[in-house]
Fold:
Amino acid sequence: MQSNISKELNMKFPPIVLLKSDVELKDGKSPKEGKGGCVMSFIAQTIAKRVTTYFGRDNVTCGGLNVGFGWGSGMANEDMIDFQATFLSLGIDSAPDREAYEEKLNYMKKNTREMFRHGERIYCDFETAKQSIKNRPVFDEGEYVIFKGLENLEDDEIPKSVIFTVNPVELTALIQINTSFRLDGACLLTPQASACQAIGCFTFEQANSDDPKPVLGPIDFAGRSKMKHFIPNEYLIVSMPWGLFLKLEELSKNSVLQTDLWKKFK
Structure:
């Protein structure tokens, strides 16, 4: 399948899709056993190199990724939630039990240990981080998550998320098309979420909405740092449910993209 929006915008990075499956791929790229970590470098390769990548429940090591890909909450107990909330806020400075937090860091490699001690600081304090973790949309479906170019989508496949990678002008055009049928001013979501959660569970949540909206990301520098080797820093990601994508595709055929104004930016 080809995207009319991508064609009209002459996008450097055509859309990719996120699919759920219970069957492991044989010809895709995946993290090696025991080498989980952040997946955004793999997803960036799907975007930039058009290679198919996939991930299974058993080869990921990040709790945030589990909820992002719709494999439960990723948090087995309250202690795990407290640990992640500490890391996502101010690290050791926000730990409700500094000694217990420090003890867990002793089992990490030096670079990782220092990152967790300082904290990722995407939340201003422990309480805000913990409540945000508990507010994440939770789904539990499928053994594998697959990323592939939209052009490689099979006729019987229905994506859970369609992912555009856009520069500022492309983002402007995409927002214009997305707002062209709406009366509500809140037309684009920017949840405080990791990159994988924005394109995953927060987009899955929109599929269940009567008024689905696109999700903008990545707004976490950890995720962006894993993508910068493949994707220039000025690019952003806009993800959306399949149904909304099909609607915007149809709208794009009679939209701002057919005006003389747009021709000035081509």
Remarks:
- The first helix runs from residue 4 to 9.
- The chain has a mean pLDDT of 93.
- The longest strand covers residues 16-21.
- DSSP finds 13 helices and six strands in the chain.
